[in-house]
Amino acid sequence: MKLEQRALRFPSAGNALVGIVDVPERPLMRGLLVLADSRQYRTGSHRQFTLLARLLAGRGVAVMRFDRSGAGDSEGSADSAADSADLTAAMKEFFIHVPEMKESVILAAGDATRSAALYAAGDERVTGLALFNPELPPAPTPDAGAALRTIRRVAPKLLPRLLQRHLPLLDRAAARQAALPAELAGAFDAYGGHILLVLGGADPAYERTARLLERRRAHCRRVEIAGADGGFSRSDWREAVAAATTSWLTSW
Q1: Are 119 and 106 in contact (CB under 8 A)?
Q2: Which residues of the chain have pLDDT under 50?
Q3: What is the spatial distance between Cα 176 and Cα 164, in angstroms, rounded to a whole number?
Q4: Angle value at C-alpha 5, between 42 and 36, nearest 5 degrees
Q5: Tens digit of pLDDT for each residue in 66-122?
Q6: Radius of gyration for the alpha carbons in the chain, expressed in angstroms and rounded
Q7: What DSSP string runs through the chain?
Q8: How far apart are CA 149 and CA 17, in angstroms?
Q9: What is the value of pTM for the model shown?
């Protein structure tokens, strides 16, 4: 299948963003918009997003990648508050360049999970979220930490009384750690699309986020790349990620 790669420059909240769209000769109705995390550019770690875009485009899926505000070749300053405007502008540009599309999936890596979920909840054209090593900020528990420090310092004979006093506090802290932040819980409740979780690496933050999402959304599909690092740096790991994403994206 013939492919066309177009360089993009488009506005977002007064900044010029730079991106690339891979357009197949006969695009499918569903495309893929890539949102890199705060540590990556549009190419992805070890060119992962570039290679994935080429693979998907070869199968008829249009793919757009772009540098967020303050990242790579885009103007502005790196600020998560700009993500909503960036996503809105990028999605508009994507549909302009690929008018055959009727819907899109957002691929979000790492800490881009939050921005992708909040955006998807308000755009019915987003029918899927592919979350690579998803990260969410931990729930704040400063009061629980103070309680634990107090308990560790006391004499053994006072432990029963202190535990009775502090256990409810620790239980509430554990419950917060085992729940999505309120804004994201609302976003995932409002979002009715498909979710793919791709996990690699030993960071417990990935597993924590995956479990939270699976408990809230029973139809999540999980794919674990055995032995992979967080950036899927080996070619066989990247190929496994690409195959899983392609299979999922074309499964509905």
Answers
A1: yes
A2: 142, 151, 169-177
A3: 20
A4: 15
A5: 999 988 899 988 776 678 999 999 999 999 999 999 999 999 999 899 999 999 999
A6: 21
A7: --EEEEEEEEEETTEEEEEEEEEESS--SEEEEEE--TT--TT-GGGHHHHHHHHHHHTT--EEEEPPTTSTT--S---GGGHHHHHHHHHHHHHHH-TT-SEEEEEEEGGGHHHHHHHHTT-TTEEEEEEES---PPPP-HHHHHHHHHHHHS-GGGHHHHHHHHHHHHHHHHHHHTS--HHHHHHHHH--SEEEEEE-SS-HHHHHHHHHHHHH-TT-EEEE-TT--TT--SHHHHHHHHHHHHHHHT--
A8: 48
A9: 0.82
